[in-house]
Amino acid sequence: MKLLLDTHIWLWSLQDSRRLGKRVQHELHNSENELWLSPISTWEALTLHAKGRIRLHGDLANWVVDSTAPFREAPLTHEIALAARELRLQQQDPADRFLAATAKVLDLTLVTADLRLLGLGEVATLANR
Question: With 80 as the cut, is the pLDDT of residue 91 above it?
């Protein structure tokens, strides 16, 4: 499977893996799966840190390098930007739109606990269970 981690799943995997469901933990450790991360998640994590909503330890440049190293980097393309605008999502959260659109365009499965993203129909998802 090709898995795109939602920002909170990525952060939980780094800081509090007990919050991950058994199925998600299994899939994240399955060497047959490809793990993908969007630069949107990096931006979102850095933004949450700047607002004091989460704490990232150490030098931020080193943190980014170390915490993204195990993942394939999902590109942010014009096609993804268009898909993000066209998604039928009630919410307007740009990060969620970009992550869902990235999964759709690149044919990835979005790993998330966000009920608003689960079951979109347009995007393959894996619930945090």
Answer: no
Domain assignment of residue 45, given as a range:
2-127
Read off the amino acid at residue 49: H
Instruction: Provide the number of structural domains found in the chain.
Output: 1
| Alpha helix stretches (DSSP H) within 34-93 | 39-50, 60-68, 78-86
Structure token digits, residue 43: 């931006």
Question: Please, are residues 81 and 88 in contact by the beta-carbon 8 Å criterion?
Answer: no
Structure confidence by residue, pLDDT tens digits, 97-116: 999 999 999 999 999 999 88
Alpha carbon separation from 112 to 24, 52, 61, 65, 93 (Å, rounded): 9, 22, 26, 23, 15
Q: Is 110 exposed, middle or buried (0-12, 13-18, 19+ CB in 10 A)?
A: buried
pLDDT score at 41: 98
Q: What is the CATH number of the domain that holds 27?
A: 3.40.50.1010
Which is it for strands 72-73 and 34-37: parallel, antiparallel or unpaired?
A: parallel
